[in-house]
């Protein structure tokens, strides 16, 4: 995991506590976010924290009629440097008045990139995992997720027809592309601190642009052209970064066949969502994969698993993704060394393999995994 860390320095006062919003939301979010909080608070000589507990989620919507109260938005915008979001139980069917709070938070806080490292760790829990060290950057504000949908009746057939608008802008595409190339350079700098034989990725940094412009020539065409221009217009800065393209369908195929071929992957919102969840299968479980929703002035860590209502309240949810997401939060707030300690502690627990939650084939509780991480800190 350490080779996948993301470096983005926000201006934070070293003496003042970091004010972090905690939004457990639904299901196991109420178990894994407190677990991540414990690990943050246990860092020796680490930053001080001022945690504020905030509401959001489908269960909150069922009680109050709103999924994202204004006080949560205002507190995050005006008081916090970052946040941790747990999980949301968004229904698969339409519920009048409800929309996903995590999607809304990304828009309110201008968190324009979802940054997801996926790296293999030698562990008895994953005997057949692929060897990879990949970073997926998903544009976070546009594509089909603008939720502009409508339903009509076809006068010719009398049957319903549903439409969804898709938005791809040069502005959003350029921001995501710039982050991808910057992260490629940063990852290479961090790799070079290790002996070559200890690195998974041993080539020049590389950015893979995912699109389907052979079919969606206008929208994906604009995405492709804009991201390519980030490198082409800045040869001095990004000349040392290789650039390639991959159609989204062949990207999925190739990612499962040879994930070791990818370094940094950048994709529009929908494609990135699918690719990043699929990539989690390559390292064993959604329960170990972190993410960060990143903007220029705010970062929100978010484990990528769902709310898992079937195990909520049983004390067996996997806290690793949430702990790693808290590490990404620290990375983006400039506390690199403390984030590294968290990653190394998690990797040590996975490598040992004796204390694992049931989703990884073990019999341990959430609390036992947290205690093991704290021991390795």
UniProtKB/TrEMBL annotation:
Keyword Metal-binding annotated: yes
GO cellular component, one term: mitochondrion
GO biological process, one term: isocitrate metabolic process
Pfam families for this protein: Iso_dh
Names of required cofactors: Mg(2+)
Keywords associated with the record: Magnesium, Metal-binding, NAD, Oxidoreductase
Domain Isopropylmalate dehydrogenase-like: 19-373
Designated name of the protein: Isopropylmalate dehydrogenase-like domain-containing protein
């Amino acid at each position: 995991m350490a080779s996948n860390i993301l470096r983005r320095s926000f201006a934070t006062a070293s003496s003042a506590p970091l004010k972090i919003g905690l939004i457990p939301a639904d299901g196991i979010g109420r178990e894994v976010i407190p677990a991540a909080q414990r690990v943050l608070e246990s860092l020796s000589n680490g930053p001080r924290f001022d945690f504020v507990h905030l509401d959001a989620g489908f269960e909150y919507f069922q009680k109050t009629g709103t999924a994202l109260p204004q006080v949560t938005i205002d507190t995050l915008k005006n008081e916090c440097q970052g946040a941790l979001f747990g999980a949301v139980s968004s229904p698969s069917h339409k519920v009048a008045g409800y929309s996903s709070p995590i999607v809304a938070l990304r828009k309110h806080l201008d968190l324009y990139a979802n940054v997801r490292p996926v790296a293999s760790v030698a562990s008895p829990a994953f005997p057949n995992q692929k060897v990879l060290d990949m970073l997926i950057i998903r544009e976070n504000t546009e594509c089909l997720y603008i939720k502009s949908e409508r339903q009509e009746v076809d006068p010719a057939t009398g049957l319903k027809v549903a439409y969804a608008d898709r938005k791809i802008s040069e502005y959003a595409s350029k921001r995501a592309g710039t982050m991808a190339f910057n992260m490629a350079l940063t990852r290479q700098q961090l790799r070079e601190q290790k002996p070559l034989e200890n690195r998974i990725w041993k080539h020049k940094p590389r950015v893979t642009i995912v699109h389907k412009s052979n079919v969606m020539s206008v929208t994906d065409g604009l995405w492709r052209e804009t991201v390519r221009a980030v490198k082409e217009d800045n040869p001095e800065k990004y000349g040392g970064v290789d650039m390639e393209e991959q159609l989204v369908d062949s990207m999925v195929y190739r990612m499962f066949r040879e994930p070791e071929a990818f370094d940094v992957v950048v994709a529009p919102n929908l494609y990135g969502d699918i690719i990043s969840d699929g990539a989690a299968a390559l390292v064993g479980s959604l329960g170990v994969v972190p993410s960060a929703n990143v903007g220029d002035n705010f970062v929100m860590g978010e484990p990528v698993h769902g709310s898992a209502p079937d195990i909520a309240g049983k004390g067996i949810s996997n806290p690793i993704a949430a702990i790693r997401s808290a590490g990404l939060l620290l990375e983006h707030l400039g506390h690199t060394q403390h984030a590294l300690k968290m990653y190394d502690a998690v990797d040590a627990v996975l490598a040992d393999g004796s204390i694992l939650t049931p989703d990884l084939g073990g019999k341990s509780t959430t609390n036992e995994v947290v205690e093991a991480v704290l021991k390795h800190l």
